[in-house]
Amino acid sequence: VMADNIGAAIGEGPLPGMYVPPILKRWNDIGRENPMDRSLLPLMECLGSITVVCGMNYQPWAVETFEMAMSTIEGSMLIISHYNDISDVDDELADPMICAIDLIDGLIEGLGSNFATLVAGSAKFGP
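^ that's the sequence the OP posted. Answer follows.
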């Protein structure tokens, strides 16, 4: 992952503004057609690392990222809820939800105490 290999430098100054928007656009483009598309998993994993490294510099994209991750969790749970026996659910169905939860964890770690403000600012998932 880029953030793990390059380190803190990728979160400094205007640099995140160059690469975060195209990653989010790609997620939106794919997610509109199929929010469970497995090609979204590496994007979410990448963003999870980026949010930690960027910290407060990730704020311009934090609400959008949070809402997209929560929508992924919501979609996964709806699909899984249609199974009568939870043991019938294979790992592939749960993978998007797990990656989205990891991404939210990255937001929490990166934004620290400001994460509560992020949630409050979410029109869909806020208070």
